[in-house]
Amino acid sequence: MRILVTGGAGFIGSHLCERLIDEGREVLCLDNFFTGRRVNIFHLLDNPRFELIRHDVTEPILLEVDQIYNLACPASPVHYQYNPVKTVKTNVMGAINMLGLAKRVRARILQASTSEVYGDPLVHPQTEDYWGHVNPIGIRSCYDEGKRIAETLMTDYHRQNKVDIRIARIFNTYGPRMLEDDGRVVSNFIVQALRGEPLTLYGEGEQTRSFCYVDDLIEGLMRLMNTDDLHAPINLGNPGEFTIKQLAEEVIKICGSKSGLTHLPLPADDPRQRKPDISKAQTLLKWNPTIPLHEGLERTVADFKERVKTT
Ligand code: NAD
Ligand code: UDP
Q1: I need a surface site. Which of 176, 195, 260, 273 has the fewest CB within 10 A?
Q2: Secondary structure of the chain: what % helix, strand, coil (to 5)?
Q3: Strands across the sheet with 108-114, in order?
Q4: Which pLDDT tens digit goes with each residue over 113-170?
Q5: Which atom of ligand 1 lies closest to the CA of 40?
Q6: What is the pLDDT of residues 173-225, one digit of tens each?
């Protein structure tokens, strides 16, 4: 079984490559290194079953593979807003190129979609049949709408060309190897707490998110990929819901930090609440997240302590 992981040098991608290699698979890791790092997959480079391809998914490529995990796309608002047109191209042309490849070589393809397809949701918790509440012209739209059209493409390639698709709607995922300057909340807070700087709460910090530890997510992605006849989107996330202020307090406690809190303006279109309904994943994949926030944060903080300069 030869498996292509696009975005394989990124945060989630590198954990997925590692797990697939551990399970004896042959892995092709494809990345343009926009937010991915060689160091994330450095320990895999010597493995004869691992191959690294520097390539941009907006360009076509022909590879002989059995499965494709299409993860290529910056996930942090800071990074996906840096070049929004490129973010749209990555989502749309990337999906077309990877679906074309899947069609040609008859590979099964899994798309890393996102809870952002629900936008600022009016249904809580979010179920897969909710169509979402998304601004098509806001600063998050390049990502949200890009991911929505990728879902459309996946579904139309399935209906029209019988491509064997899987769609994972991933909710906020965190863990070791997140970039220190990633801009997402967990990495920002840990770096700030370790440096003794105030933690930056955007707005009042009353908005909520549900945080899934990366190992749990990888298990869910692999179960989804390897379950037959599941062509509709599936939520993958941890239903534990926390305000951003609660997260800040937890991070300060775990880091043993003396940092305080500071408030910055809330970015436009920032979703007010988010929590996955994971009944479908529980029933169809027999999947449940197993690592509570406190434990996952402890593991993540341990990783950041080794990397972050505190003086
Ligand atoms: P990440 O930024 O660490 O990883 C993305 C990877 O894709 C990087 O290695 C980057 O260099 C690569 N990439 C970006 N554009 C590319 C292109 N045009 N061609 C080839 N490679 C490209 O982010 P992540 O958190 O690991 O996210 C991985 C996937 O999961 C993304 O598709 C993201 O949208 C999705 N996702 C992540 C989360 C989360 O909380 N981490 C939540 C929902 C969805
Ligand atoms: N956030 C924050 N401080 C930060 C970074 C983010 O308060 O330093 C907030 C952000 O406004 C959002 C939540 O934390 O409400 C999650 O942000 P992130 O960028 O991690 O993910 P997303 O908004 O895409 O879920």
Answers
A1: 260
A2: 40, 20, 40
A3: 50-54, 26-31, 2-6, 67-70, 108-114, 165-170, 234-236
A4: 999 999 999 999 999 999 999 999 999 999 999 999 999 999 999 999 999 999 999 9
A5: 9
A6: 999 999 999 999 999 999 999 999 999 999 999 999 999 999 999 999 999 99
The verdict on pTM exceeding 0.85 is yes
Rg (CA), the chain: 19
pLDDT digits (tens, 9 = 90+) for 69-123: 999 999 999 999 999 999 999 999 999 999 999 999 999 999 999 999 999 999 9
So where are the chain's domains? 2-173+213-236, 174-209+240-275+291-307
* CATH class of segment(s) 174-209+240-275+291-307: alpha beta
- 3-state SS, residue 254: helix
Q: Which CATH superfamily is domain 2-173+213-236 in?
A: NAD(P)-binding Rossmann-like Domain (3.40.50.720)
Give 34 Cα–ligand 1 centroid separation in angstroms: 9
Dist. CA 184 → ligand 2 center (Å): 6
Cβ 297 under 6 angstroms from ligand 2: no
